[in-house]
Amino acid sequence: MTASRPGPVRRFLVGTWRTLDFTRRFILTVLFLLLVGVLLAAALKAPLKVEPRSVLVVAPVGLLVEEYSASALDRALAKMTGQDLPEVRLRDLLRVLDAAGSDDRIERVLLRLDRFAGGGLASLREVGAAIDRLRASGKEVIAYGDAYGQGAYYLAARAGEVYLHPFGVALVEGLGRYRTYFARAFEKLGIEVRLFRVGEYKSAGEPYIRNEASPEAREADLYWMNDLWQRWLVEVGQARGLAPAALQASVDGFPERLEAAAGDFARVTLDAGLVDDLKTADQVRALLIERGVADRDGHSFRQVSMEHYLELLDRERGDAGAAGAPVAIVVAEGEIVDGETPGGMVGGVSTSALIRAAREDDQVRAVVLRVDSPGGGVFPSELIRREVELTRAAGKPVVVSMGDLAASGGYWISMDADRIFADPSTITGSIGVFGLWFNAPETMDRLGLNTDGTATTAMAGLFDPTRPFDPRTGRIIQSSVDNFYREFIGKVSVARGQSEAAVDEVARGRVWSGAQAHERGLVDQLGGLGEAIAHARELAGLAADSPFRYVERELGTFERFVQNLGGSALAHAARGAGVYLPGAWLPEGVRGDLARAQALLAQRGQLPWSVQAHCLCGAD
Questions:
Q1: Across-strand partners of 56?
Q2: Domain of 242: which CATH number?
């Protein structure tokens, strides 16, 4: 007899299964061989250590931030793939610089700032002060760059020697604040926008209803920017031995000086006294070999990277964030929105939970709230402020340390602290509230669309943006904005011990520098995070060297596993051997100004509109 042949469906299923099974075994085999190779590399590679007479290479990549915007899982995967996430934490930079000052193994420090994207002036001043402390300890600090942006140059200027590539430039532009205005575009699209606000200086919503900055916005912006810029000129001038007026003239006359130098950027930079000499990277490398010790291969100088040095500090000295520290630091960085948020944003629920966790921890005696936020939703801001109030009521002092930006909602969450510290260059204030309403009747008409129906009350449908604007809608939103502004002013009045009239004089949405806010009673004391921590210890009756720790969201089991793997010696060995996971696994995304504003305005919670305490401010 002849056996019957399997049908086409069965043949297809069997073939598919065999293909899948082969693929599964192939992938597992490859992963197994990859793991074996990494283990061998780890076994053969010497453990991380700092040898005597080493150069600490501080080469930050990306923006200076208070906390990472990417999750712990994303950062760990980035390490394992050999890719850099373009952010460096302020606390890490300060830690390595301060530790190097007392580390006999570190002979000198090299600042490589080519890939550093800068940060706010308040944060830069903290790093600059750490560089000053490092030099005061007797350590030599050298800065080298293929090019310097304005923020990078501010740090480079604090070094004892500053070098630039012969084809490079230190581009100093000053401060400016420019925004895109959408009124004419909305008019062409048939979109109607209405702004509801309190305070003539509350300009965050202006780009949607105007085609240019209002006189009040120009006046206020120039006032605080001039204060920051003069501080930049004075401090860079002191570091480089240049008069502030000469620096200002150098910036203003840059086009003419460049033409006179036949377009030679580096020569113009050298002639202005911004750098000490023009050198290539190999020349700087030879200089450091001559002054120090060559590495084992003899091709470069003995060195340790900032990343490896941080890991060694954790192993050798223990992390300052060890459990049981009596001072807890909670970071509130980014826009303030409803709910729970990842890093880089302030969630009304998630940030409140961190403060509450510190309050309910019996080992915590004081809380420092580090604020770097332009504000956001009023409701989530109030949730966070309430947790600050409850923490103080529980007998635990709360000290606010303002970073680069603590304005509008950022000030709302700060005002009830026992004491508010700000850097002179912090951007703060903007005590005001606004709301926006969009509808598009002309667009609907052009498309031949019409909204019609019936309702049981006069309220139903008032907040439908497809219908023509009803004045009652505006009355409701304006009443809400007015009420929130009264609440804002009233709470500041109680917290700061001033009359509501006095607070209103410095409020009305106006932005101030930290120094200007201090003069007006909105800030208690000028100083950085270190001063705020010291004051929190004092209020809690703690020793001056009491440890502190950062209170952060607890990681899941898998996140901890991947994070530990990404920072392990195994991962370092893999990267050293050129073995990486596929980089395509990493998330990417960039939000522009408009996208950021749209996301902000979309935070409406349970209401059909959103009332914001946001300044949308900053300087470039």
A1: 109, 304
A2: 3.90.226.10
> Can you tell me the distance from the alpha carbon of 509 to that of 201, in angstroms, rounded to the nearest whole number?
5
Classify residue 438 as left (phi > 0), alpha (psi -120 to 50) or beta: beta
Task: Identify which of 352, 348, 491 has the alpha carbon closest to the alpha carbon of residue 412.
Answer: 491
**CA–CA dist 294, 299 (Å, integer):** 7
**Cα 292 from Cα 303, distance rounded (Å):** 10
Catalytically active residues, by annotation: 202, 408
Residue 365 lies in a domain: no
**Contacts of residue 173, Cβ cutoff 8 Å, sequence gap at least 6:** 150, 251
Radius of gyration in angstroms for the set of CA atoms belonging to the chain, rounded to a whole number: 28
Joined tokens for residue 361:
């921890």
pLDDT of residue 92: 96
- Number of folded domains that form the chain: 1
Distance CA 146, CA 59 (A): 12
- 24 confidence band (pLDDT: 50, 70, 90): confident
Query: pLDDT band at 563, cuts 50/70/90?
Result: very low
Question: CA-to-CA distance for 73 and 112, rounded, in angstroms?
Answer: 27
- In this predicted structure, the answer to whether residue 586 has a pLDDT above a threshold of 60 is no
The reply to whether 471 falls in a domain is no
Percent of the chain with pLDDT over 70: 81
User: 412: closest CA among 342, 339, 487?
Assistant: 487
CB atoms under 10 Å from CB of 433, counted, come to: 30
C-alpha distance from residue 429 to each of 399, 571, 600 (Å): 17, 45, 19
Within 8 A by CB and 6+ apart from 608, the residues are 463
Could you report the per-residue pLDDT of 448-503, keeping only the tens digit for each?
A: 998 889 999 989 988 888 888 899 999 999 999 999 999 999 999 999 999 999 99
- What's this model's pTM, rounded to 2 decimal places? 0.83
* Residue 18 falls inside a structural domain: no
Q: DSSP state, 296?
A: T
pLDDT at 35: 58
Is residue 141, in this structure, part of any structural domain at all?
yes
Is the backbone of residue 71 left (phi > 0), alpha (psi -120 to 50) or beta?
beta
What domain range includes position 160?
54-176+225-318+562-585
CA distance 191 to 184: 10
Q: Kindly report the average pLDDT of the chain as a whole number.
A: 86
CB 288 within 8 A of CB 301: yes
CA distances from 585 to 20, 76, 80, 201, 476 (A): 22, 12, 11, 45, 47
Residue-wise pLDDT for 120-156, tens only, equals: 999 999 999 999 999 999 999 999 999 999 999 999 9
Give the residue carrying structure tokens 């009045």: 493
E strands in 146-294: 161-164, 192-198, 277-278
Question: Which helix H or strand E contains 68, and what residues bound it?
Answer: none
pLDDT level of residue 601 (50, 70, 90 thresholds): very low
| Buried/exposed 127-145: b ≥16 CB within 10 Å, e otherwise | bbbbbeebbeeebbbbbbb
DSSP 255-289: HHHHHHTTT-HHHHHHHTTS-SEE--HHHHHHHHH
Can you tell me the distance from the alpha carbon of 609 to that of 601, in angstroms, rounded to the nearest whole number? 9
Closest listed residue to residue 232, CA positions, set 180, 176, 169, 290 = 176
The answer to whether the CB of 225 falls within 8 A of the CB of 619 is: yes
